Amino acid sequence: MTSQPNRLPTNGLIDRSTALSFRFDGKNFLGFKGDTLASALVANGVKLVGRSFKYHRPRGILTAGSEEPNALVELRSGARREPNTKATTAELYEGLEAASQNRWPSLNFDVMSVNQLFAPIFVAGFYYKTFMWPAKFWEAIYEPAIRRAAGLGRAAGVSDPDHYDKAWAHCDVVIAGSGPSGLAAALAAARCGARVILCEEDFALGGRLLADGGTIDGLPAAEWVTRAVAELEAMPDVRIMTRTTLFGVYDGGTYGAIERVNDHLPAPPEHQVRQRLWRIVAKRCVVAAGAIERPIVFAGNDTPGVMMASAMRSYINRYAATPARRIALFTNNEDGWRTAETAIAAGLQVAAVIDARPDVSPAHRSLASKGGFPVLHGSVSSVDGGKNGVRKISVALTGGARAEVEADGLAVSGGWNPAVGLTSYHRGRPKWRDDIAAFVPDGAPPGMVAAGAANGAFGLGACLREGFEAGAAAARDAGRSGSTGSMPVADDEAFSITPLWHVAGKGKAFVDQQHDVTASDVELAQREGFQSVEHLKRYTTLGMATDQGKTSNVAGLAIMAAVSGKSIPETGTTICRPPYVPVAIGAFAGHHRDENFHATRLTPSHHWATEQGAVFVDTGLWKRAQWYPRAGEKDWLESVTREVKAVRSGVGFCDVSTLGKIDVHGPDAGAFLDRVYINAFSSLAVGKARYGLMLREDGIVYDDGTTSRLAEDHYFLTTTTAKAGLVMQHLEFCRQVLFPELDVHLTSVSDQWAQFSIAGPSARKLLQQIVDESEDLSNEGFPFMGAREVKLRGGLKARLFRISFSGELAFEISVPARYGEAMARNLMIAGEPFGVTPYGTEALGVMRIEKGHVAGPELNGTTTAGDLGLGKMMSTKKDFIGRVMAGREALVAPNRQVVVGIKPIDKARRLRSGAHIIPKGETPGPDNDQGYVTSVCFSPVLDQWIGLGLVERGRERIGEIVRAHDPLRGEDYDVELCNPVFYDPDGGRQRG
Amino acid sequence: MRIVCPFCGERELGEFTYLGDAKPQRPAPDAGEDAVYDYVYLRDNIAGVMGEHWYHGGGCRTWLKVTRNTLTHEISAVEPAAGAGAGQVVK
Description:
The structure holds two protein chains of two kinds.
Chain A: E1 15-24, E2 27-33, H1 37-43, E3 50-51, E4 58-59, E5 72-75, E6 82-86, E7 96-100, H2 126-130, H3 137-149, E8 164-176, H4 180-191, E9 196-199, H5 209-212, E10 215-216, E11 219-220, H6 221-233, E12 238-241, E13 244-250, E14 254-259, E15 275-287, E16 291-293, E17 306-308, H7 309-318, E18 326-331, H8 337-345, E19 349-355, H9 362-371, E20 375-386, E21 389-397, E22 402-406, E23 409-413, E24 416-418, E25 431-433, E26 438-440, E27 448-450, H10 460-477, E28 510-512, E29 517-518, H11 519-527, H12 533-540, H13 553-564, H14 568-571, H15 585-589, E30 601-602, H16 606-611, E31 615-619, E32 622-627, H17 636-649, E33 652-655, E34 660-665, H18 669-676, E35 688-695, E36 701-711, E37 714-719, H19 724-738, E38 745-748, E39 753-759, H20 763-770, E40 787-791, E41 797-801, E42 810-816, H21 820-830, E43 837-838, H22 841-850, H23 883-886, E44 897-904, E45 916-919, E46 931-939, E47 944-952, E48 961-966, E49 971-978, H24 988-991
Parallel strand pairs in A: 1-7, 8-9, 8-15, 9-12, 15-27, 17-23, 18-19, 18-23, 19-20, 30-32, 33-43
Antiparallel strand pairs in A: 1-2, 3-4, 5-6, 5-7, 10-11, 13-14, 14-15, 16-24, 20-21, 21-22, 25-26, 28-29, 31-32, 33-39, 34-37, 34-38, 35-36, 36-37, 39-42, 40-41, 41-42, 44-47, 44-49, 45-48, 46-47, 48-49
Helix pairs in contact in A: 4-6, 4-10, 7-8, 11-13, 17-22
Chain B: E1 2-5, E2 9-12, E3 17-21, H1 33-41, E4 49-55, E5 63-69, E6 75-80
Antiparallel strand pairs in B: 1-2, 3-4, 4-5, 5-6
C-alpha cells in the first residue's frame, strides 16, 4: 500500500484521523474520510483513470463535480457493481472497490487503443458512413463489434439486491444548491417563516465556498457556513437534504430529487434503502445550482493532468490533495487566476500562467513576480504527454512567437457557464450575455427563479444578494410575511473574460471528452450541412453522453458558430431535458418491482384456498384459485376434469368475489340501467336477476354481467372481473355527465361482498345447510333467476341469486367480505355429505365453454351484440348507449364473424385457440381467413376438446366442416362448426 | 401536474384519469346517425386552452371539467362536469 504522495500536509476539509483503505483496479490505496474517490486518487498520484469511448485514449480527472466526463468507474462489485459512476462524486468509504472502464486487458496496456490509428474513420457520423454495406452485416457483425469496442462500464447483469424508496414532500420554497446563493436564499425564506427544503448534491454544504473560501459578514466563509447551517437547522420548518440532487422540474410546481441515502456506505444498513426518489411539491423554487467552469478546446486537452482550474482548487483547498507539483494555468478570465493564488498559497510551483486576454491586473502581475513565474500572453496550442500525465505545454504567444512550458499539470479556465438545466426544462431557451460570454436563464418555469452564479452573477457579494432577495421574494409569494433579518454581505470580485473556445493546432482537440467528439468533428458536421445545433448534436453525438455535455455543449456550439460565421446566440442551444444527473431506474421504480410491481388483490377465501393447495393465477391484480390439485393427479387437466365432473354430478363451489359489484340506488335506478344496458331493467321484477349487456357508444360490446333488483329503487349490478373499475368509471360518466336529470346513485361494493358460486345438482341441498330453515329455496319459492336477501343460520344476512354460469342448478351467495373465508370453510363442512368440491377458474371456464357462454376472449373490443348471438337482446323501445352506432352498416353486415361452437373431427385431437378457420379446399391466407378459435377446453362431458370461435356467417354454417389452420404451431386439421351450447342446450338443468 | 378538485382540494395527477374534449354533447335519441357519428368520433384537440373531462377516480369519483392549456399544462378552472355531456333530455 502506497502512502499518499500528493496529499498536502495541512488544511483541507478531510478527517486525517480516519484513514480509509480502498482498491482501484485491484491496487490498494489509502484516503481519508471526507475524500471522494477522485480526490483520494489525486492524493495517491493516480493520473490515469479511464480509457475514452471511441479512441481508447488515456484519460484523467477533469473536474471535481457531477459534470465530470472522464473519470467514470465501475463502483463496487458483484450484484452491486454500478457502471459509469463519477469518481468525482463517489464518496470514499472503507473498503471501496472501483475499476476503470473501457479498457482491455488493463488500463495501462489497452489493446483497443489501436483505434487511435484508425481515427480517420471514426469521424462524425462514422456509423452511418462506414457500416452501411452490406446492410445485413449491421445486426450480425458491425453492431456487436462496435458495442464491444466502444462503450462505458458493464452493468451488473444480475438483480439489484438493494431497495429504493419513493417519497413526497411539500414546502413553500425548495432551493437547489447550498453555495452562498442557496444558503442566503434559505436564510431569507426561512426567517420569513417559509417551509424550506434545501437540496445539496454534495455531502457537504457550502458549494464553491468549500474550495474557494472568502469572507462573508467579516467571517471566514467556512465559519459563516457553519453559522448559517446552525441557524437553519434550528428552525422547525427547514429541511436540509445533502447528497440530494434536484434533477427535474414538472408541471404544477413538482420537482424531482434523488437522495443518495446510503451510496456513501459499502452497502445500505439492514432495512434501509440505497436511494430515495423525492417528488417535492413547492410553491416556489430558487435555483442556486451555481455554474460549471468550461474547458478551452486545444490539441491534447484530454491528456491526464489537464484539469479545470476550479477543480484543481477544489482538490488542493478542500481535499488537500494536489494533482500536480508544477502547475501551469491557461485562462481567458480573471477567475482562473485564483488557481495560481491557491497553488502559491499551498506551496506549489506555478510554471506559468498563459492568459488569452490582452491585459492582466496589477495584483496578478505582482503575484507572478512574488511566485516567480512568467505570465504568457497567448494560448495553449498543444500538450505533450500521455497516460502518465502532462510533460510539456506548447504556447502560441500573441504576436506569433511560440513558447514551451514544462509542467506536470495544466489548469484550464475558459470561463463559467451558469447551470441553466433546471431553468430550461420547460423548453426554455437561455439567453446569451456578452459581458460574461455565457448563457444565462431567460425566464424559468412558473414559480422558479435562478439566483447567483446560476443566474450569471459570479461575484460572492452578488451571489449572496441575489440568493437572499430570491429567498425573500419566494417566501412572500408563498404567503409568508416574516422579517428577513439582515442580508449577508461580501465583496464582489472583479470578473473579466475574453471569449476563447478553440485554439487551432495539430492533434486531436476534444470538445466532448466522454463521447470523443473533436473540434474537427464539429467542423466536419457543419461542412456536411448539419446547420442546426440539434442536428449537430445527433450527428456527432456531442453532449449525448451520461454527462449530457455539461462541460462540452457551449464550446461545441461556439465552434459551430465560428465555422458557420454566425454569432453564438444565432446558433442557439439544444433543448435541455431532465434528469440533470443520471438517476437509476431502480429509484424511479422504488418498491414497485418483482412481486410488488403492482398491488396484489386477494379474494376473501384466499388463505383457505392456500391451505387447500390451490394453484393461483394472476387475473389483473387478483390472485384467483385456478384449480385445486389432489394427491396423485398427474397434471392440471386431470384436476380440472375432476372438478368439472364433481360439479356436474354433485356440487362444487367457486369464489367469484372478483366480479365488480355496484349498488344502484334511487327512484330512477331502473331508467338509468335502461340507458346503459341494451336490454330493459326497469321492467325487471323485484326479486329477480337478469343478464345484461353494455355497449360502448360506438356500438361495440363493452361488458356483461347479471344485475338483480333487490327493491323498487335498488339494483345490484355485477361486472366482469377485468372491467370492474372501468365500468364504474363509465357508469359514473353516464350518471354525472350524460344523464344528470336521473335521480340515481352508484356505490362500488366490489370489496364489500364475498361472493361464491354454488353449482351442481346438490347445490340446493348444500345451501339448505347454510341458510336459515325459514328460507324457502324450492324451485317454486326461489325459481331460476331469483334474487333476494336471505338470513343464514346464525342470523347473518346474505344476498342470494339463482343464476348459473355452469349450466347446473346453481346459486351465487354474497356475504360481507369479512365472512368470506368462514363461508368457504362452512361450505366444505356442510357440503361433506354431498361430496362438495371446490373448483377454480379453469373448471369455471370449461363449464362456460360447454354452455356456450361468452367471456373475455369473445368480448374482445371488436364484437357486437349480434356477433355474440345476443342481438335480440337489443331493445327497440328505448335509447341506450351504443344504440345508434350499433346499427351501422358494417356492424350489422351479414358476413360478420360470429360466435359458433367448434369441435375437431378427430375426437382425440386437441383444439388450440388462435387457430384460423379456412374453408375446406382453400389455400390458407388472408383472403380465405374466415375467423379464428377464441376459447378452448377439454370437455369432460363430451370427452373431447371443444371450443368457441368467431367465424364468418358461423350461425348459418352449423354442421359445415372447415380447416383449423394453426401456422404458429404447425397444425392443420378439420373441425366441425356447431351449436355453441354443447351441454344441455334447452337449459333444463339450471332451471331444475 | 396537479389538479385542484373542487371537492378534495389540490391532488396529484396520478389520482385522475383523462378522457378528453369536454365539448361534445350526447345527441337526442332521434338526432340521427350522422349526429351520433360526430359525437362519437369528432373531438377537438386544441393547441391551447381547452375544456377536458377528467375523472377523480383516486378521490371522490367526480367527473370534472378541467380547463387546461395543452401547451403549458396550466389549469385555469376545474368544475364538476355535471350535465356537461347531456344533450336533450331523453323522454
